[in-house]
Write a structure and sequence with these properties.
about 120 residues; alpha+beta; 4-stranded antiparallel beta sheet; 3 helices; globular
Length: about 120
C-alpha cells in the first residue's frame, strides 16, 4: 500500500511539474521572422498622404489620432499600414510601414508595396 501511495504521488508530481515547466519552444514558432530593412521602400518612406494616394489610389482606411495618421491599403496579396507623423511642424509623412497577408501572415514590406502599386489603384 505504501508503494502504491509513493507511486501515485510521483505520478501526480511529474504531471503537475509538466504543467508548470517553462516551454522549450519560443512563442510564435512556425511564424517567419521578417527583417525590417528599408530597401525597396524608398518610394513610400517620407511621402505625405497625397503621395501615397498618387502611388496606391484611395486608402481603404484612414485613421487619425491627434497629429498621427494611419492610411491602410488593401490588395489581393497584402495589407499595408502606413504611419504618418509630423516632424518639426511640417505635414505628416510616412515614418513606418507594416505589412501582412490578408490572413495576417507575415509578408515582406517591399513586396507588399510592389504588389499594391500594381493593383491598379495607383499611377
Amino acid at each position: 500500500m505504501k508503494r502504491l501511495a509513493i507511486a501515485m504521488a510521483m505520478l501526480i508530481g511529474s504531471t503537475l511539474a509538466g504543467c508548470a515547466a517553462p516551454s522549450a519552444t519560443a512563442p510564435g514558432v512556425g511564424r517567419a521572422s521578417v527583417a525590417y530593412s528599408t530597401v525597396g521602400l524608398e518610394r513610400v518612406l517620407g511621402q505625405n498622404a497625397g503621395g501615397l494616394v498618387a502611388l496606391f489610389g484611395q486608402p481603404d482606411a484612414d485613421v487619425r489620432e491627434q497629429t498621427a495618421r494611419k492610411l491602410q491599403f488593401q490588395g489581393p496579396i497584402c495589407v499595408l499600414d502606413a504611419y504618418l507623423y509630423p516632424k518639426g511642424g511640417r505635414e505628416p509623412v510616412v515614418t513606418y510601414l507594416d505589412a501582412r497577408e490578408p490572413d495576417g501572415s507575415t509578408i515582406d514590406r517591399a513586396s507588399c508595396v510592389a504588389a499594391l502599386v500594381r493593383r491598379g489603384g495607383g499611377r
